[in-house]
Automatic annotation (TrEMBL):
<dbReference type="Pfam" id="PF02283">
    <property type="entry name" value="CobU"/>
</dbReference>
<protein>
    <recommendedName>
        <fullName>Adenosylcobinamide kinase</fullName>
    </recommendedName>
</protein>
<dbReference type="InterPro" id="IPR003203">
    <property type="entry name" value="CobU/CobP"/>
</dbReference>
<dbReference type="GO" id="GO:0000166">
    <property type="term" value="F:nucleotide binding"/>
</dbReference>
<dbReference type="InterPro" id="IPR027417">
    <property type="entry name" value="P-loop_NTPase"/>
</dbReference>
<dbReference type="GO" id="GO:0009236">
    <property type="term" value="P:cobalamin biosynthetic process"/>
</dbReference>
<dbReference type="GO" id="GO:0043752">
    <property type="term" value="F:adenosylcobinamide kinase activity"/>
</dbReference>
Length: 80
């Protein structure tokens, strides 16, 4: 299980694509929503936010189940 994927990506956004194969072996990956709200001022923070979002998209494409938690309520986005 991986918690706070966005923090891992924000620590080193250049290597986010390399995480993909390792993350596929995990049963559960948890990431805060990072694409909404105010656009970060720094280029590095914008790059990290973009990298986290793209990584989550790739993981969701391969996942059997994708759940978004909204106000403590699970919303199933994808289920196979």
């Amino acid at each position: 299980m991986v918690y706070h994927l966005q923090n891992i990506v924000f620590d080193d956004p250049d290597h986010a694509p390399e995480l993909f194969d390792r993350l596929l072996t995990k049963e559960v990956v948890v990431c805060d929503e990072v694409g909404s709200g105010i656009v970060p001022l720094s280029a590095r923070d914008r790059q990290a936010r973009e990298a986290a979002g793209r990584l989550c998209i790739r993981l969701a494409e391969r996942a059997d189940r994708v759940v978004r938690l909204v106000c403590g309520i699970p919303v199933v986005i994808k289920e196979q």
